[in-house]
Design goal:
The complex is a heterodimer.
Chain A lengths: L1 E3 L6 E3 L9 E3 L6 E7 L2 E5 L10
Chain B lengths: L1 E6 L4 H11 L4 E7 L8 H4 L11 E2 L7 E6 L6 H11 E6 L9 H8 L12 E2 L3 H8 L4 E3 L3 H15 L9 E7 L14 H4 L4 E4 L5 H9 L4 E7 L6 E8 L6 H14 L3 E3 L21 E8 L4 E8 L3 H15 L17
Parallel strand pairs in B: 1-2, 1-4, 2-3, 4-5, 5-7, 6-7, 8-10, 12-13
Antiparallel strand pairs in B: 8-11, 9-10, 11-14, 13-14
Helix pairs in contact in B: 1-10, 6-8, 6-9
Chain lengths: 55, 344
């Protein structure tokens, strides 16, 4: 089962045992993705903590 | 084993060539020349090579025939001797600026005097594998690359190769550079009390490496501005350009990912976590990798493309060895596997 990252279009392949609602990480751009469907495979961007480095 | 020699091996790029080639599994270093260090052990000049080689600097007047000759001479010297060097080796890699530009008139404009061997310019392939890989496989003569030009060209490569930027718009590249770019010879500005802790813009426009970016990227309006920072090794190029209308984040990802997939030493660094979210030269010391990153303003189309390299490696000796590997039909990564250090 595979889909594409909505941020960078990298191919995302679900590992065996992946569940709906699970947060996975895009292997290319590193965004967090929420699994919204298994068949067909689908993901949405998940909110990430913003980092301002204190500057 | 392929027999190689290095002419002008006492400088920083010569030292890096010795470090890489001494551990290269397919080559044997025959001679490393230096007039000023003649008869001295290599490690007395390049102390990291102590206990790694007992080679001594030899006289450039006593060169033996070899398969590949590396030229680590100051600019404007190799062109005077190229005919003699071609009789010593069938393959030459020249690290200086003498054979980087194809057009003699362009050379004269940027180097301030006519080339003394203009008929040789067309025989050389510009030595950046990411741009000329196929030509390098059959080349006998390969030029070096300017370190700042390399950081700039690689920052622009995904955008230009995929036709993503407006060719009519000015491209401005800001470079932060380490002190080893200045070479082994000192000058008043490199004296430690003057050089330490600086953020010194030493070239606002018109640097010679600009010519290599214009030539290799095919752009009309490029400005390089260079600033010395408190590093020994490293270049960070921050390129500002304008995207063509309609270019989206996904198009940029596709372009940068494609460049990284096609080139073993290009990596995309655009992370969402951790400290190293963008390319930084610090972790590339001694490595032949070039790290690329980007970001853009979708409202204005302003793209910022970033490239970090080690100026002595991807910007000089590392690319030179990568070119030699291609010329010899070897895996282009041979001898260049060092990934850098962290922390450093």
């Amino acid at each position: 089962m595979s889909t594409n990252c909505p941020e960078c279009e990298a191919e995302i392949t679900f590992e065996e045992g992946t569940e709906i609602g699970e947060i996975i990480v895009c292997p290319d751009c590193g965004v967090d993705l929420e699994v919204t469907s298994l068949d067909p495979a689908a993901v949405d961007l998940a909110p990430m903590e913003q980092e301002d480095w204190g500057e | 084993m392929t027999r190689v020699s290095i002419i002008g091996a006492s400088g920083y790029t010569g030292g890096e060539l010795l470090r890489i080639l001494n551990d290269h599994p397919e080559v044997e270093i025959i001679q490393a020349t230096s007039r000023s260090k003649l008869g001295e052990y290599i490690y007395q000049t390049h102390p990291n090579l102590r206990k790694r080689t007992q080679l001594k600097f030899s006289d450039p007047a006593d060169l033996e025939s070899v398969d590949v000759l590396f030229l680590g001479l100051p600019h404007k010297q190799a062109q005077h001797m190229i005919e003699e060097y071609a009789n010593i080796a069938s393959r030459i890699v020249d690290l200086s600026g003498d054979f980087r530009l194809r057009d003699p008139k362009v050379y004269e404009r940027w180097y301030g005097e006519p080339h003394v061997a203009p008929e040789w310019l067309s025989k050389f392939i510009y030595g950046l594998p990411e741009l000329h890989r196929e030509d390098l496989k059959t080349a006998n003569y390969v030029s070096g690359v300017g370190c700042n030009a390399t950081a700039s060209n690689l920052a622009l490569l995904p955008l230009v190769q995929n036709n993503l930027i407006d060719p009519a718009a000015r491209v401005i590249i800001e470079l932060k550079v380490g002190s080893s770019e200045g070479g082994v010879a000192g000058n008043p500005g490199s004296h430690h009390p003057e050089r330490a802790n600086v953020i010194r813009t030493f070239s606002t426009y018109g640097h010679r490496h600009t010519a290599e970016v214009l030539q290799e990227m095919g752009l009309k309006d490029v400005t390089l501005t260079m600033t010395s920072v408190d590093l020994v090794r490293g270049v960070l190029a921050t390129a500002h350009a304008v995207l063509k209308p309609g270019v989206q984040n996904k198009d940029l990802w596709k372009a940068y990912r494609g460049a990284a997939n096609d080139n073993p030493f290009l990596r995309v660094v655009k992370e969402q976590r951790g400290v190293y979210r963008v390319p930084e030269p610090k972790i590339l010391s001694g490595s032949n990798y070039a790290d690329l990153g980007f970001d853009f303003d979708p409202e204005t189309g302003h793209i910022v493309s970033i490239c970090a390299i080690d100026n002595l490696m991807k910007g000089a000796s590392g690319s030179a060895v990568q070119c030699m590997n291609l010329m010899l039909g070897l895996d282009e990564t041979t001898g260049l596997g060092f990934p850098g250090l962290h922390p450093i």
